[in-house]
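ARCHIVE CARD
CATEGORY: sequence design from structure
SOURCE FIELD: tokenized fold
FIELD CONTENT:
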């Protein structure tokens, strides 16, 4: 049985955003059953947990003696077992992997830069000076992503892949802003992905854990 490690508690601003959501969603898309293992506050800093996740983060994926951390790596591993995430066609598969890395390397750092300023340092003088520049850099990336989407339903034209999954979870970090909503193409793309039944099940499962 696949086990996914997740936090038992996070601050309200992080509910629905923690990266185990990516893995839960991928497993739902792939039709693979899993069980969750919830860790309490502070447990991520214990030697036992650091032995499987060196940085004290979630998720951790475990199955048949294999232990993986880093959500992108886990999603790609799951994708190896599901054409719903990684197409069988060699070229389409390569493009899907391309968009996984684009989400994590070309978009997420800029998103997280702004989110960290807004959520944790908004009242610091350095953050007030830094935010306009961080916003400009992010908007340029979002504009480029929007232009690439054009009128296509997904990043690689008509087929949902692991790249769309990762990109959607990255864009969700901007829910405290209107940066996605004011770009209709990007907003529709994000909403289309979030409307997928697999996403809805994954989100409900993550939120249910916090509700306990």
């Amino acid at each position: 049985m696949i086990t996914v490690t997740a936090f038992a508690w996070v601050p309200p601003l992080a509910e629905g955003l923690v990266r185990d959501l990516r893995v839960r969603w991928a497993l739902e898309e792939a039709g693979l059953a899993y069980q969750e293992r919830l860790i309490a506050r502070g447990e991520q800093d214990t030697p036992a947990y650091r032995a499987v996740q060196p940085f004290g983060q979630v998720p951790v994926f475990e199955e048949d003696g294999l232990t993986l951390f880093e959500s992108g790596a886990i999603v790609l591993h799951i994708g190896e077992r599901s054409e719903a995430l990684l197409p069988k066609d060699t070229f389409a598969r390569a493009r899907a992997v391309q968009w996984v890395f684009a989400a994590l390397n070309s978009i997420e750092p800029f998103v997280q830069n702004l989110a960290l300023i807004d959520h944790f340092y908004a009242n610091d003088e350095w953050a007030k000076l830094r935010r306009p520049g961080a916003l400009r850099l992010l908007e340029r990336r979002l504009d480029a992503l929007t232009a690439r989407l054009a009128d296509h339903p997904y990043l690689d034209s008509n087929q949902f892949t692991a790249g769309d999954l990762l990109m959607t979870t990255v864009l969700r970090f901007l829910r405290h802003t209107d940066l996605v909503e004011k770009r209709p193409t990007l907003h529709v793309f994000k909403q289309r992905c979030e409307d997928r039944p697999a996403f809805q099940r994954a989100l409900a499962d993550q939120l249910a854990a916090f509700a306990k």
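CARD ANNOTATION: Residues 142 and 178 are 12 Å apart (CA to CA). The chain has eight helices and four strands.
SHELF: design records, drawer C
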